[in-house]
Amino acid sequence: PYEGCASSEREPACDDALAEFVLPLGYSAHGDISSSVPMASLRAALLQARERLRLSGAQSCRATHAPSQPLHPTCGFEVGLERSLAREDLFCEMLTWQLEELSDGNPQEFAANKCPFDGSLRAAESSSNQKK
Predict the structure, then answer these.
(1) Which pTM value belongs to this model?
(2) Bridge partners for 75 per DSSP
(3) What is residue 2's predicted lDDT score, i.e. its pLDDT?
(4) What is the sign of the dihedral through the CA atoms of 103, 108, 110 and 112?
(5) How far apart (Å, rounded) are the C-alpha atoms in residues 54 and 97?
(6) 3-class SS of residue 85
(7) Which of 82, 94, 99, 113 is positioned for an S-S bond with 105, CB 3.0–4.6 A?
């Protein structure tokens, strides 16, 4: 799950959203996002791309995934939290994704971050969904 993929394997709607919101920020000669782009701008662009995908998905996607608003693209450590994302709803969504896709998640981490835990969502363990 943490490996690159061929363009033929990617979701076209994802590429379109990234092209609309992230590409305009600018890239270096190496194809990486330019180091002159403020991190807050990059985070906001990623949330906008994510929101485009959320709204273009099925109703179940819109109902179960956190909205991008408030647009608060802050890392947890920046506001004294011991988690990657400051926004609790987005962090809980990320924990649930790890549980569903990677079979990675423990009830204590969910509880410590006020996230609902449903062990029945845990992916079946296989070599294809292990963290790499």
Answers:
(1) 0.74
(2) 85
(3) 64
(4) negative
(5) 14
(6) strand
(7) 99
